[in-house]
Write a structure and sequence with these properties.
alpha/beta; TIM Barrel; 8 helices; binds zinc ion; about 240 residues; 7-stranded parallel beta sheet
Length: about 240
């Protein structure tokens, strides 16, 4: 099955190179039906401000009028505390169609970890609390930061994250830019029925809808890559 929804792209309003319109036109050209414009939250370098977010939303709405693609606009928020809080402002949350959350800076979760294990537990805890908060639709690249730190979640932790994601109907993303090396979380997600979403994490228009590596990976996981329609995650 061909994926037709790219639920994670960046524009010039954070560290992407394309305008909202350029991303949307690229999505249309690639035959996508749906694209999400999800720039980085305020805690990221080049992250959104309330002011730039308003411009992103306005340009996204204009772009949608010019194309046949359904456009969702939102933010890839940073998880900024061990209790799973995110950095999207109230204005961003109220105007967003879609909210992704990710850990990019583990120091925000635990400034002085005593051990790799302590940091891993903190990251898992923050991820779970973020899912439970009801503020986010998708956890972007949920194991990437752990893999960067060379620590892998245990089967038990994968089970906890996937079950909470299933209970709260929050997507666990397969991300084309940060391909996971360890599939444990996704294997458990498939077993317990947590949604798995697909995102290119495009930082340039030509990367929008670039799913080839993800399709291969999905097959290795034994699943047919399948769009999760935003409505299925409660996104309207
Ligand atoms: Zn990210
Ligand atoms: Zn991203």
């Amino acid at each position: 099955m061909r994926l037709r929804a790219d639920l994670h792209t960046h524009t010039v309003y954070s560290d992407g190179h394309g305008t909202p319109l350029e991303n949307v036109l690229a999505a249309e050209e690639r035959g996508l039906e749906t694209v999400a414009l999800t720039d980085h939250g305020p805690a990221s370098p080049d992250g959104l401000t309330d002011r730039s977010f308003r411009r992103l939303v306005a340009e996204a709405r204009e772009a949608e009028k010019l194309c046949s693609v359904r456009v969702y606009v939102g933010v890839e928020a940073n998880i900024v505390s061990i209790s799973g809080e995110i950095d999207a402002t109230p204005a961003m949350l109220s105007e967003s169609d879609i909210v992704l959350a990710a850990i990019h800076n583990p120091r925000l979760i635990l400034a002085n970890p005593g051990s790799a294990e302590e940091l891993r537990r903190a990251i898992v805890h923050a991820t779970i609390r973020c899912i439970e908060s009801g503020e986010v639709h998708i956890i972007a690249h949920p194991v990437w930061i752990l893999e960067q730190l060379r620590c892998y979640i245990t089967a038990q932790e994968a089970e906890e994250i996937a079950r909470v994601a299933a209970d709260h109907n929050v997507g666990l993303e397969l991300n084309a830019r940060h391909l996971p090396r360890d599939f444990t979380l996704y294997q458990v997600a498939i077993r317990v029925g947590a949604p798995i979403t697909f995102g290119s994490d495009a930082h340039a228009p030509e990367e929008v809808g670039r799913f080839k590596p993800l399709q291969k990976l999905a097959r290795r996981l034994g699943i047919e890559p399948q769009d999760v329609h935003p409505e299925e995650l409660g996104i309207v």
